[in-house]
């Protein structure tokens, strides 16, 4: 999708899969955010009907359930005139009754694009290898790129510009953090990360984030101290401490994350204009009600922006 003209120059994303923002450069990411914002303005505020995907269909594979990913994809694709097809693990036995290779080839003949929300990132790589249509990562154990586009669109709307902002992640070294690490520096955003010892981000992703930070002239901090991470920040971010598939680790994880709950006390060392993000669903041990339901919280605009950013993938 390309609407209007960008000062960034020509960007061609047609036919590309979207597994990780590691594969996209600064101009391409800025282009995605610009188009998402443009679509939001035209459809939501100007009430335009833009049947850009008329006659197209998307196969939505969900190994893991999700309110926001399903609703944003179905409503967003429909708003552009396309037809979403939802496939649960009961409808499609990916890699069990049918190999990923065969599934990729079958869906390539039946749909125009696939969004897959899976456990293993390897599953997405297998689909890309054998599909002749684009594959979108709806979430994997390694990355959650569609969430990060929504996060940065939300911050762009709130602050007016992303360049120079400081984002502080306080929580688990998980897939959402990995996507922040692959994106922040490319947008001129400083990233400060606090994770408990033993819950660090992937080491290869740390190395890439350090390289990107150096390349783009941004700051990248890793620490185990939430206060150190929050100091001087514009945005405090956290996520669930217990992801799907980690339920047996819950008691130990809550113990290990003691002191990581985001409160107004955490924000007292941040900048006066600090805001809060959480990709949901949220548990109270991660952030208290005073922050979560405060005017500083952008979590509900962030959730809505999943719809507008998924349209550009």
TrEMBL record:
A Pfam family it matches: OTCace_N
Protein's GO biological process: citrulline biosynthetic process; L-arginine biosynthetic process via ornithine; urea cycle
Protein's pathway: Nitrogen metabolism; urea cycle; L-citrulline from L-ornithine and carbamoyl phosphate: step 1/1
Keyword entries, A-Z: Amino-acid biosynthesis, Arginine biosynthesis, Mitochondrion, Transferase, Transit peptide, Urea cycle
Domain Aspartate/ornithine carbamoyltransferase Asp/Orn-binding: 164-311
Record localization: Mitochondrion matrix
Domain of life: Eukaryota
Gene3D superfamilies: Aspartate/ornithine carbamoyltransferase (3.40.50.1370)
Main location: mitochondrion
GO MF terms, alphabetically ordered: amino acid binding; ornithine carbamoyltransferase activity
Homology family: Belongs to the aspartate/ornithine carbamoyltransferase superfamily. OTCase family.
Subunit structure: Homotrimer.
Protein name: ornithine carbamoyltransferase
Taxonomic lineage of the native organism: Eukaryota, Metazoa, Chordata, Craniata, Vertebrata
């Amino acid at each position: 999708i390309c609407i209007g003209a960008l000062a960034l120059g020509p960007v061609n994303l047609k036919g590309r899969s979207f597994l990780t923002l590691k594969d996209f450069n600064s101009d391409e990411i800025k282009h995605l955010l610009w188009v998402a914002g443009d679509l939001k303005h035209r459809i939501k505020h100007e009430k335009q009907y833009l049947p850009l995907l008329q006659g197209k269909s998307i196969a939505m594979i969900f190994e893991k359930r999700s309110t926001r990913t399903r609703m944003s994809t179905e409503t967003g694709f429909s708003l552009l005139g396309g037809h979403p097809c939802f496939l649960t693990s009961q409808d499609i036995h990916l890699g069990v009754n049918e190999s990923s290779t065969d599934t990729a080839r079958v869906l390539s003949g039946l749909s125009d694009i696939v969004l897959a929300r899976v456990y293993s990132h390897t599953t997405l790589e297998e689909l890309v290898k054998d599909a002749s249509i684009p594959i979108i990562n709806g979430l994997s154990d390694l990355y959650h790129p569609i969430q990060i586009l929504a996060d940065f669109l939300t911050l762009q709307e709130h602050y007016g510009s992303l360049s120079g902002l400081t984002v502080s992640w306080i929580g688990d070294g998980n897939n959402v953090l990995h996507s922040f690490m692959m994106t922040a520096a490319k947008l001129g955003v400083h990233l400060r990360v606090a994770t408990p010892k033993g819950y660090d981000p992937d080491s290869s992703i740390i190395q890439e984030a350090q390289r990107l930070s150096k390349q783009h002239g941004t700051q990248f901090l890793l620490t185990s101290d939430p206060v150190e991470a929050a100091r001087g920040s514009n945005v405090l971010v956290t996520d669930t401490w217990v992801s799907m598939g980690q339920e047996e680790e819950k008691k130990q994880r809550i113990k290990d994350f003691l002191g990581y709950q985001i409160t107004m006390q955490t924000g007292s060392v941040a900048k006066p204009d600090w805001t809060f993000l959480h990709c949901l669903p949220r548990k109270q041990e991660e952030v208290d009600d005073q922050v979560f339901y405060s005017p500083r919280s952008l979590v509900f605009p962030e959730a809505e922006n999943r719809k507008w950013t998924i349209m550009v993938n």
